[in-house]
Each structure stands twice: as structure tokens, then as C-alpha cells.
Specification:
The chain has 7 helices and 14 strands. The protein is of the alpha/beta class and about 280 residues long. The protein has 2 domains: about 240 residues, Carbon-nitrogen hydrolase (Nitrilase/N-carbamoyl-D-aminoacid amidohydrolase, 4-Layer Sandwich), CATH 3.60.110.10; about 30 residues, no CATH class. Helix 6 links the parallel strand 8 and strand 9.
Amino acid sequence: MSRDLLFAAVQPPAPGGEMDHKRTVATALELLDRAGCSGADAVCLPEYLNVLGCDDGTWSDPPPLAELLDPVADLASRHSMCVVLPVLEKRGDHRYNTALILDRTGRIVGRYDKTHLTASERDHYGVTPGDAYPVFDLDFGRIGVMTCYDGHFPEVARLLSLNGAEIIFFPSLQRHITASLLEVQLRARAVDSCVYLVRSSYGYPDDVAWTPGMMVGKSCVVDFEGTILADAGPRVGLCLQQIDLDRPRLKERSFGGQTGDAREFLYQDRRPGTYDRLTRP
């Protein structure tokens, strides 16, 4: 038995300079279409795609969701692919950093509201944090989502894994982090929770010189052993990787000589009764 699937991460240009929000979104949709034409089963788009590069007024009153959702849903349906679409969404009197989960028909089947907000999200933009870690059963398996700053907290990936996520989609910005540090973070989250990761962020066109302090891009796919299988680097583009979700997650049990399922060993050897300090401020 195997579940061979093609996963994709879209890396559109970061807004700034001559690159405005509309061009960023247009390029993201072009890359999403390319992913569909390549046969992608599931695609991750980057954080805040509907407002990144816009003025504060737009962040205070985000555009109607349909402006971006409709073309993304159309591509999802046309290519029969699932899509993770991260947006700033206004619901009632609150705004959330939300990842919308679209199935192969373009229908919204779930939402994840980012739980760990940066200071600027809370204090400047007035975003409301989520308080749950849902997982979503798609036709190929169970997925979870963590968004940008969530990745700095190992509890997020662990909770998603405990809830049965086989693969975690990781839309992000993460401006102020080096590529090497980000790689450590990605590998650690994948290994510690025995999951695949699909990360999506923003890059730069070939005619823009990358300098330290700019976003590092690094839309990528990481396996449960911490191997980076595909990496878009710092440039605008598309990251594609075939994965068999039924690939045995084998390892040798630490000092036991026994070979078996890495996830089973991981959770058999956990001692949650000793972790009460994690729930205190």
C-alpha cells in the first residue's frame, strides 16, 4: 500500500520597492496554477497573502475574503488539489491570522487561527490569537497547520502530531531569522514530532540582490527524519516534492536494539505526567 502524493509550496515575491501587493498576489496565483498543472495534490501558500504589502488601513479593514478566495478556490477545483490559503480574516469584531483549508473542490473544510502572535500582530495590528490546534482529514490523510511564529514553540507541532497529523503545513514570513537557524527549526520540528513539513514563504525575483536582513525564502518540504527533500531557496518559485505518506517511519529504539515505528516509540516513551510545568506561565 502507498499514498504517493505531490506536495507543493508556492513562493511568490515579497512586496516592497517596485513589487506591490497586487503583483505579489498575481504571481502567487500563477505559481498555484503551475503547481496544479504539475499534478500537485496539496499546495501551501504563504502567510497573510491577502494583505501583505498593503497599508495599515487595509490591515484594519481587510478586503472581502472572496477577492482572493474565489480565484484560489477556482484553481483548486480546476486542478483537483487541496490548498492551504493563509489570510487576515475579519470575523465579527475580531481579526484572525487564519489558514483556510480548501479541499479538491475548492470548498473550505476548515480553519486554523494562529495561536502564537508576534508583538506587532497583537499591539499594532490588533490580531486576535486562536486557542485550538485542529487537524483536518483530507482525502489523502490527516494534516495540521502551524503559522510562522508558531514554529518557535515545539508544543504546536507536538500537539498536532498527537492529534494524528501526518503532515504539517507551515505558512510563514519570518523576516528576522537566518536560513541556517530556520533549517535547524524545521528539522527539529519534523524529527521531534515525526511528521512531514511543507513550508511556504516569500522570495525575491532574480534581478533583486539578496542581502542579509531580507526574508530568506526557503519554501521547502522536510521529511520525518529531518531531511530537506526540496528547497526553493531565496528566489521566487515553486517547490515540488513527491511523498509516500505510507513510507515506514522506521528507527532503532534508543539503546533497545528494537526496530519499529518511530512515532510509536516516541509516544510510548513520553512521560506527560511530568510535564505539568509546561502549562504554567
